[in-house]
């Protein structure tokens, strides 16, 4: 294989001497949980536009199963914060119908696992109607809720839908990581005229992230379809989204201690995928790992690999790309098994070490 | 009920038969009718959890009669043309004909107001036309041409128009969507009523019952209209439904059974439904008992699960157009010549549209990637392989 950079070991040493540290964090002004950031986003957008309303199970009087909609029912009342029965296909269909008629529903799934009951309305009713009607019927709707594995809830409640929904043209799919992501992207999603699937994470809800004054302002909106470089580095690129960003950043910290500088790209949006940012980073680091919680086959990492293979980014690689993913098994309940089923920082460290050492021939008979 | 039928009051007050037209005379060319209004009895409704139903008689002016007849005739003609285009292999894929069921759509449409909205299933060609799309717009969509109402991108099941949200190819999906339209009417307070139509087959879909439940909980101005044509594809209602009283299957939602072969019955029932829903009482279920002459779709000859005799008998005894024609002729509301003139005009209009729908071009190939998103954010839309990228095109004007 022709390498576009000096032999790996030499290259590694050379790059270590040019180690850089992250400078992307704005001045931290106030710690805010992801949950509160989401709540702020919904509140501000409801304040701004009367067409915006929330419906879903327990979103009103109960304050949301995960308290994301806390206080909104008290503030906006029955008309705009609506408790539904536990009937996903029905209320998702009603939400899409309301969007057909020009309202801007925020349809909460208690978790995205239950969105499978309603997936027909997300794909067939929401994603395709603008195209099928030749632009006659826009569908401005947000489907949101916690996605992916929580803790100890076993197979039916631990699944990432990033790959599922990002497969479908007509949808935009967002997977925020931090509080800033959550707020800026949810506001963008609500304002967007197309159907958006907004995949949150139960474990991230309670985490605090610093938010700048700018991010706390009601004008703060992030662009859909643009990734964020969470940490700059020159040796290897880690591409991730949502909760996996946390895993990747922890791994990057650990690797930094060994002299390996990772560039961590938080995708923020899965569809459209900001491949330009990935490609630019590969041109810099020549090594790539994808990190996600979902299953490997036909997953987000698989898509990124395919795009690398199909583009000039391929020639920038010094080693094959590795995917770090959830294990290819339904989620087990037992703690020890569950731990093995999801990517942890040491898994990313191990993968990065292997890719950088170009150990592929030995280890990846996959 | 006179509130629902303004012309009835006029009739009772004696202002009848006074239209200043030339009285009909026995001549080779009778152009005008002798009466300006007539009242017709309607086959009794069956009611579920309602004390009082729609008007049991309908008053038609001569003008109403001619308009209703013309709409019925256009719908029948569109479907005849569609069937032929399908046999000529110009219409591709699926094609579900409405012939036999015209009185449901035509009567309902006659009662709808500008603010009301409609969604139906895939047997939607007639509805689309009634909601304002030209015959050419419908037929060109079926032939996949640029003059189609969805520019040829939707096909026979995906037709849309103002206040008309399809055309839906997924059995039953249109029902919660329709409840969503009703939700929007209520949210906006615009006084509109949404009509969600579905067949007897879809009537067994779980999502209907979810929609019923929420519509009732939230008092949505939604009329669930079951067009019971006797068969869901090839399965008769008795073989698919534990209860075939579709008008009662909303349980806690009041319902009405309507003779769906009588355009006056469907019109009166719809007037009643609008009155009911706009008074804040919540949703209503209406079963329109009707019949489809063709198979479920064009690939179904429609003969394995029912007899040819059965179809013939309905055609001869209950046809919505023939029976309406007989009534308005017998009451001297219209003349045979007037109807003949309509028939000729309709045939000409549909024939011309058919011809154009065959000869029009399809949209430009760039529209393959047109209007996927209202606000596209993809730099490139991927084509078949990386060497054939597509560009997103905005075909309709954005606000």
Automatic annotation (TrEMBL), chain A:
Transit peptide keyword on record: yes
Domain Transketolase-like pyrimidine-binding: 32-207
Keywords assigned by UniProt, alphabetized: Metal-binding, Mitochondrion, Oxidoreductase, Potassium, Pyruvate, Thiamine pyrophosphate, Transit peptide
EC number assigned by the record: 1.2.4.1
EC class of the enzyme, as a word: oxidoreductase
Source organism superkingdom: Eukaryota
Known cofactor(s): thiamine diphosphate
Keyword Chloroplast: no
Catalysed conversion reaction: N(6)-[(R)-lipoyl]-L-lysyl-[protein] + pyruvate + H(+) = N(6)-[(R)-S(8)-acetyldihydrolipoyl]-L-lysyl-[protein] + CO2
Residues that span the membrane, as ranges: none
One Gene Ontology CC term in the entry: mitochondrion
Gene3D superfamilies assigned to the protein according to its UniProt record, in alphabetical order: 3.40.50.920, 3.40.50.970
A Pfam family assignment: Transket_pyr
InterPro entries: PDHB_mito-type, THDP-binding, Transketo_C/PFOR_II, Transketolase-like_Pyr-bd, Transketolase_C
Subcellular location: Mitochondrion
Gene Ontology molecular function, alphabetical: metal ion binding; pyruvate dehydrogenase (acetyl-transferring) activity
Predominant location category: mitochondrion
NCBIfam families tied to this protein: PRK09212.1 (NF006667), PRK11892.1 (NF008854)
Functional note: The pyruvate dehydrogenase complex catalyzes the overall conversion of pyruvate to acetyl-CoA and CO2.
UniProt protein name: Pyruvate dehydrogenase E1 component subunit beta
UniProtKB/TrEMBL annotation, chain B:
Enzyme class: oxidoreductase
UniProt xrefs under NCBIfam families: PDH_E1_alph_y
Gene Ontology biological process: pyruvate decarboxylation to acetyl-CoA
Gene3D superfamilies reported for this sequence: 3.40.50.970
Keywords noted in UniProt: Oxidoreductase, Pyruvate, Thiamine pyrophosphate, Transit peptide
Catalytic function, reaction form: N(6)-[(R)-lipoyl]-L-lysyl-[protein] + pyruvate + H(+) = N(6)-[(R)-S(8)-acetyldihydrolipoyl]-L-lysyl-[protein] + CO2
Listed cofactors: thiamine diphosphate
Domain Dehydrogenase E1 component as annotated: residue spans: 71-362
Cross-referenced SUPFAM superfamilies: Thiamin diphosphate-binding fold (THDP-binding)
GO MF assignments: pyruvate dehydrogenase (acetyl-transferring) activity
Known role: The pyruvate dehydrogenase complex catalyzes the overall conversion of pyruvate to acetyl-CoA and CO(2).
Name of the featured protein: Pyruvate dehydrogenase E1 component subunit alpha
Provenance organism: Leptosia nina
EC number: 1.2.4.1
Keyword Oxidoreductase in annotation: yes
Pfam families: E1_dh
Keyword hit for Ribonucleoprotein: no
